[in-house]
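To: structure desk
From: M.T.
Subject: fold request, one chain
Message: Could you run this one when you get a chance? Sequence is below, nothing fancy, just the single chain.
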Amino acid sequence: MRAWLKQSGRLADNLEIEDFDDRLEAVFQYIEKTDIAIKHFESMRTSCFDSTNLSSPANLNALPEEIIKARVALGWTQTKMADKLGIKRQQLTRYEKTLYSSIRFSELERIVSLLTLEIEKLKHFDLDEADLAKFTEAD
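Reply: Done. Structure tokens follow.
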């Protein structure tokens, strides 16, 4: 790989082998973390989500992650969910980034109600997982 990078002009002549190895290792670690994140996202995206996880989580600390899983399972981007809630995408991004630690309880109730309602609507179609994935992609 070093030879290819050097030949293609993407590697400076003065870069030490240790520096190159460190940078290469960092790239491989980034790729691995990204791959894991993609697999996790795809797993959430293609699974049928149980809305009871939202309305009565076994532990309240799990609620923020359940909200994010529900949004992903519905195929909604942060922008789409923010639009449905009538808030800015940046606000929803902050909520998710801080695991909803700064949200008012009334706003949290509104989010849970919206997601639960939307998931229950999908259940009435009696779709299998493949159909559900197609349905949410088209939304």
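Reply (cont.): Residues 135-139 have pLDDT under 50 and may be disordered. Let me know if you need anything else for the meeting.
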